[in-house]
Each structure stands twice: as structure tokens, then as C-alpha cells.
Amino acid sequence: MLCLIPPELADELLIPVCAAFADEPRVAVLVERRGRDADQHATDPTTERHARAPVAEREYLRALPPELRSMAHRLRFVQRLEPVDRTHQDTDTRGLIDAIRAAEPQAASELWWRCAERVHWRLRLRLGEVTAATASQGVLGRILDELAEGDAEPEPLSAWLDGVVDRYAEDVRRAA
Predict the structure, then answer these.
(1) Which stretches of the chain are assigned E, i.e. beta strand?
(2) Can you give the pTM of this predicted structure?
(3) Domain map of the chain by residue range?
(4) What is the pLDDT of residues 69-115, one digit of tens each?
């Protein structure tokens, strides 16, 4: 996972945020070097050597110490999705959830590959086409966050996913 600090706050936040996550090997702290919408711009496939990996916007803010929480809204926590491979192709839902809770990046990618169409459909239903197009990263992060925080297996997964998407869509509408 990446914690991205805006360049204008790097002098103030880089050292304390790095210290806050020094004992968390799964979090790398970086200064953001490109715009928020850089991943959404269409590129010419003949000039783009590598497509950027999709990311999940995570809500890792609870991990910040109290003295940094006032700046939390300025930080971004993102998790790049790994390319889908054969690692979890035969893993059942329970196994995927356990792997996500154990922070296996390939498990998150496999789950997203399996459920993305359903999630996108539900987002479009709840938010409309335009808003849903920009909400995918956030809802994926919410799904991963809620899976990581929960103890029990969400059953059935489809109903649980619908609930997460509906709550996320409501939060997006309230924030607008």
C-alpha cells in the first residue's frame, strides 16, 4: 500500500508520516508526483509502454497517530492491483477472503476480477453513469477495507457486496 503525500505538504509531513508507518512494512510513504486524475486520461497505446495498474483508494487513516489525523484528509492511501494470474484461480471465496486479510495482493486482484462487473453495475444503478465511472477506486478500497476489518465470512458474498456498494454510494451522494 502507498501513502501519498501532496508535494506542498512534503516538508511538513514526510518525516512524521514515515515515522508513523516505520513498523508497518506493507505501507510505503511517497510524495505524490502526478495529478489525481493521471490514471483516468486516455493515452495513445502506441506511445504508452506500460498501462498503469488499477488502484484501490484505501481508508487507512485510522492507522495514523492522533497528532497527524488533522491532516489525514490531505493524504491518499492507494493499493495497486497486481495483474491477475493463476495464483488464486482455484481459490474459493473463503480462501480469497483469508488471503486478503493476510494482505496477499494477488487475492485482492482475483476478487476484483470476479466481482468488478457486479460492483460497476450496482454503482451505475445507485450513482448514474458519470459518477460511477469515478467511484470504482473508492468502492474497491471500501470492499477491501471492510473485508480486512471483518472477522466472519460475508455470506452470501453477492449480498454483502451489494450492501458495501450501497453504503459507499450513499456516502458519495452525501459528500456531493
Answers:
(1) 2-5, 28-31, 55-58, 76-80
(2) 0.72
(3) 1-80, 88-176
(4) 888 888 888 888 888 888 888 888 888 888 888 888 889 889 988 99
